Amino acid sequence: MYKITDHPFLIRFISLTIIDEVIKYAHEINLQSRLDYVVGQNCSVQGSDLTKETTRVVISHLIDP
């Protein structure tokens, strides 16, 4: 899990943003003491050209209660 921005409702991807593939069977970190993280699942990512870092995207994120 990475913190990309301090804004609570904005994820901004810039040229320096690195998004890595999730490794299966990786160890999980207990984040119960950190309530400032949003936990959920990205359902979809839409954009006109997802290979460019300047492309505007719409991310549908399901937030776990």
Account of the protein in words:
The protein is built from no helices and 2 strands. With 65 residues, the chain is mainly beta. It has one domain. Strands 1-2 form a two-stranded antiparallel sheet. The radius of gyration is 13 Å and the shape is globular.
Topology:
Blueprint: E1 40-47, E2 57-63
Antiparallel strand pairs: 1-2
Give the overall pLDDT as a whole number.
67
Question: Kindly, what is the distance between the CA atoms of the first and last residues, rounded to a whole number of angstroms?
Answer: 17 Å
Kindly estimate the percentage of residues that lie in beta strands according to DSSP. Answer: 15-25%
Q: How much helical structure, as a percent, in the residues?
A: under 10%
Q: Could you list the spans in which at least 5 consecutive residues all have pLDDT below 50?
A: none
Tally of DSSP β-strands: 2
